[in-house]
Amino acid sequence: MEYVCDAPNDETWFRLMTEAEAVAESEEMRHAVEKHYRRERERATESFRPMSSVYFEQDIGKEAHIRRSMPLFLTLRNQDGKGLVTAMLPPGAKSGGASIIVGPANADPYADHAPAIEALADHFGLTLDRAQCYPYRR
To answer: Could you tell me if residue 109 is inside a domain?
Structure first.
């Protein structure tokens, strides 16, 4: 995981960097972030075009391209490392794309973690309101 920013109540946002981290997040949080991570990584991989036709040079820049092209998968953790919220933001955390934010078992995270979600929004200069980001609202 890669540190992103601090949040109120001694909580911290981290970026999920590997499929193994996405798998662990899915297991701990009881939702399907791993499926979305795999799908988005595959899309980013397929869109990569090598700069060289020399076989052993064809992967140069591939990981950087994938990181730029994939949505950001983030996890909010408490001081003990417990997962509290999972977020998927558009590539580069640029506005205009869809953002999804869920709690354990796809529960609404805004009731308990709105200040932390606001800290993430402020960090990236985005609006992450419940009506737009929580897909399971009733």
So the answer is: yes
Number of domains, the chain: 1
Does residue 56 sit within a domain?
no
Domain enclosing residue 10, as ranges: 2-31+71-133
Cα separation, 108 vs 135, whole angstroms: 9
Report CA 24 to chain centroid distance, whole Å.
13
In a domain, 75, yes or no: yes
Q: Which residues contact 135 (CB under 8 A, 6 or more apart)?
A: 100, 102
Statement: the pTM of the whole predicted model exceeds 0.85? yes
pLDDT digits (tens, 9 = 90+) for 68-104: 899 999 999 999 999 999 999 999 888 778 899 999 9
Assess if residue 59 is contained within a domain.
no
Amino acid at residue number 127: T
DSSP 51: S
Return all residues near 4 (Cβ < 8 A) that are at least 6 apart.
12, 13, 14, 15, 74, 120, 123
| Residue 22: both structure tokens together | 């996405």
